[in-house]
Design a protein that fits this description.
Length: 155
Amino acid sequence: MSNSWIYMAGPLFTKAEVNFNQNLADTLTENGYRIYLPQQECAGVKAPEEQFAICIRGIDKARIILAILDGTDADSGTCFEMGYAHAKNIPIVGLRTDFRGSGEHLGINLMLSNSCAHLLLTALNPPPSSDRVTYLQPGEDFIPPLLQVLRRYAA
């Protein structure tokens, strides 16, 4: 991978979210990827304007955006980060480990699903996967298919 990184966009407001993000970032780092994790980059920064600038710089230098799309609706900050990255032609990989569908296209908002170069989606009764969508069973280890997808876009 080049000197750029994977920018991890996702909710970071609960202990569970922070731990999930950190564990995923650690796993990806162990697999040779450089990760830009906003919860680390903005640690200790109080000014919202500065936090915003730090995140924008992270996206601007990213090779890939990994967007965590869990929850009944995707995190609003993640949605902004995806839109900004899409406008800059940065590939977005969407990851949804939550099997509850919450949108009008593939179980998520159609603007999010269509901005992703690839989606990894958890579903109770998943249809066959396609070139753009990898379906996962609830509880399935998403790391192996995620690494496979990231290799496609990291080259």
